[in-house]
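## Example record

The block below lists the input lines for one assembly entry, exactly as stored, with component labels intact.
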Amino acid sequence: LTLTACGSSGSSGTTAPSEGGSAAAGGGKVGIDFPRADTDFWNSYNKYVPQMATELGIDLMPPTNSQNDVAKLVSNVQALTSQGAKAIVMAPQDTGAIATTLDQLDSKKIPVVTVDTRPDKGKTFMVVRADNRAYGEKACKFLGDQLKGKGKVVEFQGSLSSVNGRDRSEAFAECMKANYPGITVFAEPTEWEGTKASAALQTRLTQHPDINGIYMQAGGAFLAPTLQLLKSKNLIVPPTDPKHIFIVSNDGIPQELKAIREGQIDATVSQPADTYAKWALFYAKAALEGKTFAPGATDHDSTIVDVGGGRLEDQLPAPLVTKDNVDDPNLWGNQVK
Amino acid sequence: MMSPSAIPAVEARNITKRFGATTALADAGIVIAEGETHALVGRNGAGKSTLVSILTGLQRPDTGEVRFAGQLAPPLADRDGWRRQVACVYQKSTIIPTLSVAENLFLNRQSAGGPINWRSLRSRANELLDQYGVAVDAGRMAGDLDVEQRQLLEIARALSFGARFIILDEPTAQLDGPAIERLFDRMRALREQGVTMMFISHHLEEVYRVCQSVTVFRDARHVLTSAVDDLPHDELVAAMTGEAAAGYQARARTTSTAAPTVLTAEKLTMAGRFQEVDLTVRAGEIVGIAGSGSSGKVGLAEALVGLRVPDSGTVTVNGTRTRPGDVASALRAGLGFVPQDRHKEGFVPLLSIGENATMPIAHKLGRFGAVSPSRRRARAEKMIEDLAIKTTGPAQPVQDLSGGNAQKVVMARALADDPTALVVIDPTAGVDVRAKQALLGAVEDAAERGAGAVLVSDELDDLRICDRVVVMFHGRIVKEVPRGWADAELVAVMEGVDAR
Amino acid sequence: MTETTVASPGSPGGSPDKAPPPGGGHNGLGLARFRDLALVPAILVLIVVGALIEPAFLSADNLTNVLQQQTELSLLVLAEAIILIAGKFDLSLESTVGLAPALGVALVIPAASNGLGTDLPVALGVPICLLIGMLVGAFNALLILRFKLSAFIVTLGMLIVLRGLQIGFTGGQNLFALPESFLYLGNARWLGLPASVWICAVAYAAGIVTLGYFRHGRAVYAIGGNADAARAAGVRTDRVMWTVFVVAGLLAALAGLLMTGRLGSVAAAQGDGMIFTVFAAAVIGGISLDGGKGTLFGALCGVLVLGLINNILTLAGVSAQWIQAIYGGIILIALMLARLTTGKAQD
Amino acid sequence: MTETTVASPGSPGGSPDKAPPPGGGHNGLGLARFRDLALVPAILVLIVVGALIEPAFLSADNLTNVLQQQTELSLLVLAEAIILIAGKFDLSLESTVGLAPALGVALVIPAASNGLGTDLPVALGVPICLLIGMLVGAFNALLILRFKLSAFIVTLGMLIVLRGLQIGFTGGQNLFALPESFLYLGNARWLGLPASVWICAVAYAAGIVTLGYFRHGRAVYAIGGNADAARAAGVRTDRVMWTVFVVAGLLAALAGLLMTGRLGSVAAAQGDGMIFTVFAAAVIGGISLDGGKGTLFGALCGVLVLGLINNILTLAGVSAQWIQAIYGGIILIALMLARLTTGKAQD
Ligand SMILES: Nc1ncnc2c1ncn2[C@@H]1O[C@H](COP(=O)(O)OP(=O)(O)OP(=O)(O)O)[C@@H](O)[C@H]1O
Ligand SMILES: Nc1ncnc2c1ncn2[C@@H]1O[C@H](COP(=O)(O)OP(=O)(O)OP(=O)(O)O)[C@@H](O)[C@H]1O
Ligand SMILES: [Mg+2]
Ligand SMILES: [Mg+2]
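Predicted structure tokens for the full assembly:
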């Protein structure tokens, strides 16, 4: 299972589109596929979608759920189009296997907005995502600075076959190598499974009791197992203690924020479930209204970049959350009830 | 015996075959002359079936060689080569339960080459079955057949090959009188056509009826080969058992009418199998139930012990009314039984003799539900000794036993709890003369100890130990015959000729 | 696995369209036909429900989609069904679905697009892909038949090894620089229907005819029913089993090829988790895990039932939160329906 | 499933390659014991390899880790092994691992922490969790024994339904706000060893003694080996099977409880995908899918083998890219080793 929680931005909705105002909700029905419903992050996203659709006045079809399975995604999209969707929002967790579907949608003149991932191939109207490489880099920089360039770090990798996991792993590894050669990194393959991470950390701590940093690529999956294990080893101590293990996470779920407040972990990269939902729907609507966009800064703290071949990507910011800014009410994790 | 110049049709020499510590055949052999019907006899576990599997190319002997008409047998991998030489009815079923009767008959030769024509295959099969007097629809699933029908199917299939040499390993063990007669007619006709046959049976009178010569195995070794006519019955038994022995003598017994009833059936009815059957068995009494095929006797016995659920009527064991279809309650009321199909209901093949035999008394072999292995072993060793089971010990899995010895384990299980009511169905099917005596003796012993027994069988020999025999015909009890009947009399009743 | 065994299908009528049973009487063939059709009521119910929920359900487009989406699954089910009928097991099929096309592609594309750098002629790609499927099948057969290892564990090990190899040599990357030949079958339409649907139909027809009407096909049933008896009857059991495994590998590679074409890339996880669904479809379709029982037609019905359930749940827009519970519940109900309509214990 | 048939017809030589018996008498017990020990060489090899790769491997700490990390798996394997020996199947255990603690927790925590709002007394949480496991087992038994549905499909359906229910009522959220009682067993240490290791040891000891030396335990073997014969010998097969399913459900819930405590939360996907590993361990440990064969000690060895392999791969720091291929390869090799040392065909 792939607990990919990813995205970017953290600041909430700066409204106002980069061009053109609202206009009447013409256009037609928007179909949306949820990638999964069994992680906190995507559940928040799933909750924001209908809310934002109402705000934007969009005629949203009942969302489908592809349960992290690209074959299901493909059949869901086919079902949505046969039910009359005029624009599609999706979050393909497998970025290669969606190419043909995108071509088919293109031939039917149905614009597609993808959230969280950028398809390897095929036409999209807009990609709304945070830069996953930036997650890895931010985590690397944070750990490197806290550890002052030396020490031992355990990294819970996601699944190699997930692009987000791979991006984070690669960026983390490159940054470590380039900037902090004094830090030894133990990359643990976990397939996004908490049990695997827990076992790997336990084994590694036995082998190297002096481990002093942990990077987990998904707080939703790894936070509780890690804390539980460290608790049982009495390793949850304030940063001033030499035994302190610096922990940086990705996701920004409420439990991570709580853990930061309580000093159990040190930082996380928050992904913007709300702005994902908001801007994805916004662009879907804009596409139906015939609007177009160009690369450049937007009015909501992000940049639209051309990632090649005229494909546009709105790169939402993903802030690093530490003790200093953990109470920012704009973080999506602070808005979840 | 054959003339020295003639080349024998089949020849196996110096065959040795071991299974682990068991030596199934030790330097044994057989020579069968062209066109004769040759009997192979021996006690359970003597190695007969092992020789069969070697003669049909299913197993490789450790040493020794097999020749057909002077030619060395084909290599093991060449199944077609073997099948051209020999057809066989194996002792263990080779019917594939998930396929139809027709397909089982023509397995691997359903068509000449092209696609299979199921309609014609079925009609060919029906013809073949008619020819052998087997009343089974070729379209049925073989798994739905009963033991006897399956046996007939095996025989029909083996005979249908047109092979010049046919092996029949205990073909009659599961058959009733008329079916055996039909088989013998068939065998005689084949012999007239010059077909060579090897015939295995524990019914020595059958050997005298259809065979010309006989080979005796004892303890994995060849003992003698002789013309049947030159070998009187007693000598044959002596050769098999290694000692002189007389036929089984039923013991005299008197049951008082005051003896308590141990087993009663009242108005027992099961649609299509038996109707309104009343039966009372007293302590110390053995009641036989006879009847020709499909008379309902087995169904009745199975309903008595709880293997089948009757539609109406009651069964009472030692004053306790048993729950229909609940074997455990019958056993707890003091019943022991031997089922007809030992492979299906008789034993768990992977488990040891000890465990199989003591399964119904497991609760008595220790406290708090524990089973003491040493007490189990002790009980099992006694059973092995009592019934003369040929085995390496109580820990041997039942699946490694020869057919007759497995049957004895089933008997041991039935007797394990010193039952006061005993129901045995075809107890001597496939067991050798001595074992038969042991098994019948065990039933009589139980009766002497005060048990009442029901013995279901087609074997007139078995029925002789009964104090009275009730005869069933078309699902009803038509007559009760007291001890001292004559064969012809009983058979007449069974066949419905004399249903006064 | 030996559950309340009951005699059943498999019967001479591998296929349902047989001559009428000889007048009256308890007839195995009749029962077999029943068993075969056990899922038909469930399918009808699903179609009615689908039409009621969403008119678009009955559109030719949607029905074609349902069929096309099930093609890869149905090829795998075909492969697994044959192996199960022969009394064995193959879990590794799902990995072959990924590995065979991945290796086929990687051997022919340039290293720059994540190829292996061998740069074999592109025309060899598809044949290599199919060949790899057969080799995997042959390797399974070797371990199971020659070394007498348990089919379950061998293929479980292979499941992991093959997937691991694919992740290993692709580094977990999707391959998307596909040669045209890999895309063709998954996308082409012949006579108005997707090519993959035709391929599937032909494969099933061939399977049904072979297993129903040819000696070697019947041998598969015989081996599954009682391998010793089959051997005694002169069936070359080993040779038949080798063929079965190799054909299954080939079918799995073909399924992988179709999936590659349909999705336009080879994902590192292609086929991952499918084997569960494959077993579900086969067993719901009446294939027994004990071997010797079941028909390919039944298995195909099993695939259709699952496909229809999926499609209807999607069309109905069931909430993401409860979709799985509802899906499982419907499978259980379909089962009971099948049980009620045939009145037979299952195994 | 009927592989290399053993109890077989066709010939007295159903099993052609019997191992030479341990010195002297052909002895069933001896053979069984051999089979039991089949994995011991593999375990020894792994230990030697582990020690060579990394001295820390042999530290008491690390070995304790290996044990603790396997506790949940081993409880599931225990449950599955008993069911397999009895000749049935249970795929739904992995969902019970998630559902039972999730429901237990959700019923006692306040709605604000994602509870169901029932706010039952916290003390009831753990008993409820275990009770749920037993209820799931009983429901499986009901469908399989009373309605005579196929165990494979019933539990496959239940696998999906139970997971779906968990996702449904938690909305896919992990439950973090756990009462202390749920954390205790997964974290406590008794006499220097993790409590979960003791629990496991006791469960296995009880299982081994019961299956080896108690009437009801032997009945499980008898039912798996030949249910008809067991019934004919007076074994109340249905009652035994009910007990087996309920106990298995209980063990799965217990495993879920331990996992919840160890990981400090109930993930929506807790237990997801474990059933594969469960089967792998059981079958590698010599449990036959045909029923009636195998021992719990063997199954435990299977768990240990998998645990050691995992631990060594982690210690060795094998690259993520190749770890799966290597893992699968080692499993295959361990298998062959087991085959060589016992000289028996597997099934
Ligand atoms: N596969 C086997 N494994 C172990 N022992 C075997 C096997 N097959 C046969 N035996 C042993 O070999 C001996 C000879 O068995 P065989 O079946 O040939 O006897 P038989 O003469 O046919 O007896 P019966 O009259 O009871 O059928 C027996 O002691 C039996 O236990
Ligand atoms: N499983 C069954 N279901 C329904 N009817 C059966 C079944 N088995 C047997 N019968 C029928 O029940 C009737 C009585 O069978 P039963 O086996 O009790 O007779 P039997 O006296 O033992 O005959 P045989 O000597 O041929 O075994 C027969 O007509 C038989 O065809
Ligand atoms: Mg014999
Ligand atoms: Mg009978």
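The domain at 29-342 of chain D is CATH 1.10.3470 (ABC transporter involved in vitamin B12 uptake, BtuC). The beta strands of chain D are 189-190, 193-194.
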